[in-house]
Design goal:
Elements lengths: L23 E2 L14 H4 L11 H5 L5 E2 L5 E2 L3 E3 L4 E4 L2 E5 L5 E5 L3 E5 L9 E4 L5 E4 L5 E4 L9 E4 L5 E6 L21 E6 L3 H12 L6 H15 L18 E2 L15 H15 L3 H11 L3
Helix pairs in contact: 3-4, 3-5, 4-6
Length: about 300
């Protein structure tokens, strides 16, 4: 779904300005940042997230080797069209249309390289440490921007994050976003880049617990439409005394019903938020239909 979230604060609003049709979550500001995980990136092409290297740089990776591990790409290894790595409930797939897609349990796309339209493209974990989607002619279509760190590998973690991890001895201070989840690649590795999608993976897994497994991808898309606008999936968005967290509970302390760690835990906030939607609207898509009319839920 970009994927790096900084701390975000929402503008304050007096409780008395407008009566809310329903309590629990505050009104979102219209036109906030784009969604983190859309169905669209799977079907269409778009701008690469990181500056891609030159074709010569991409070609310098040397002879490609097929992936030898289920959950990672080692230096010099590739994912060819139709091939995947997988871990936990997720899979990272190099599609035949040239798009690299991270898919969650309900066949739900969480992140994409936005490179569809170049059939035959491959994902290459270059020996110089750069993860790159390369077209058949050698043109680099997308890059993680991690060159200069020999020995780095791509690892799909069980929690739903895909990371480029460098050996700790050769890695600089990490440019990947801070995460409340462990790296999971190895004790001696340092993350250089991440899809930062563990929150979405967890939310997608929880949909089945609410009976939303039928049409799960569509239900997740509706949930994402709301929470990307409300908080950008940032568990520290807003103020605990008013609207707070991923679902923007108002006040935030309401989420204590889901766990004492509601202030910092995205998992606890997600459970509370999905319970709230189930009780107030029935399904995420019904909540999204309400949100589109009222700009709050």
């Amino acid at each position: 779904m970009q994927n790096f979230h900084g701390a975000m604060s929402r503008p304050s609003r007096s409780e008395g300005l407008r009566p809310r049709p329903r309590s629990g979550c505050r009104r979102a500001a219209a036109g906030t940042a784009a969604l983190l995980a859309l169905l669209g990136p799977v079907l269409g092409s778009g701008t690469a997230r990181a500056a891609a290297p030159s074709a010569a740089s991409a070609a310098s990776a040397g002879p490609a080797r097929a992936a030898t591990s289920v959950d990672r790409l080692l230096p010099g290894e590739t994912l060819k069209p139709g091939q995947s790595i997988s871990a936990g409930h997720d899979a990272l797939t190099m599609q035949g249309n040239g798009n690299l897609v991270l898919v969650a349990p309900g066949h739900t796309p969480l992140w994409s390289s936005h490179t569809s339209g170049d059939q035959g493209a491959q994902l290459v974990m270059q020996p110089n440490g750069n993860l790159t989607v390369v077209a058949p002619g050698g043109q680099a279509l997308w890059s993680a921007g991690t060159s200069g760190h020999s020995g780095s590998m791509l690892v799909l973690q069980p929690n739903g994050n895909a990371v480029v991890a460098a050996p700790a001895s050769s890695a600089p201070p990490s440019s990947a976003p801070p995460s409340t989840e462990p790296l999971g690649a190895s004790p001696s590795s340092t993350p250089l880049w991440s899809t930062d999608t563990f929150r979405q993976t967890y939310a997608d897994l929880q949909l089945a617990a609410h009976g939303w497994s039928r049409g799960q991808a569509a239900q997740f898309a509706c949930l994402d439409h709301i929470w990307a606008r409300e908080s950008k999936w940032n568990e520290r968005a807003g103020s605990p005394g008013s609207a707070y967290g991923i679902p923007q509970a108002s006040p935030g302390a309401k989420m204590a019903a889901a766990g004492p760690d509601w202030l910092t835990s995205p998992q606890t906030q997600i459970r509370w938020g999905e319970d709230y939607i189930a009780g107030q609207y029935g399904t995420p898509c019904q909540a999204w239909a309400y949100w589109q009319v009222h700009r709050n839920y």
